[in-house]
Design brief:
Strand order of the largest sheet: 13-6-11-8-9-14
Number of strands: 14
Order of helices and strands: EEEEEEEEEEHHEEEHE
Number of domains: 2
Shape: globular
Radius of gyration: 18 Å
Largest sheet: 6 strands, antiparallel
Amino acid sequence: MSNFGENGNIIFKISCPVCKSDNVSVLKEIKNIPYYGRILLLTVVCNDCNYKFNDIYNLEAKTPKRYILQIKTQNDLNAKIIKGASCTIKIPELDIDITPGPASEGFITNVEGILLRIKSVLIMMKRSSDSPKEMKKITKKLDFLMNVLNGLTPLKLIIEDPLGVSKIISEKNLTEETLTDEEISNLDSSHIFSIEYKNSEDKNE
């Protein structure tokens, strides 16, 4: 979508991925995020078909990182999250991985915002499912998620980013690790939003 020129400016060569129109607007905003640094927020809008896409670019060098947040109270839901398009989000208790790909977007939110997005996807999956067994499993995950949102159940939230764009900002219950070369090679940074849950309950049925 873009590349950096020798003088540090970003050069855009964009056509709409939906309708292929060149009538595309790019909105740019530079933000200085406390405990993180300077980022460039991009919003791409097609003026013909109304396609919209957001992404985040580092304006400072970053190291590939993994952040592990232990969510113990409702206050932990306010922890800020900078999610780059190359970010993988994992929730072990729910057996959920959110992996990147072509439609993945970058945005700034908090833990609650991430969990509410997952809740919306699970609700859509439940509505479209025609398997009673599958619906039961999704309902169980939704109930667990609601308990977390209500501060009744702890949860571990993990984000991994081979490009170092993503970060959890929290003063407590946070572990930070540098990704190894092997871990980076195993991460898919091709940018798509998808949710996979592993159905570990099958082992006990």
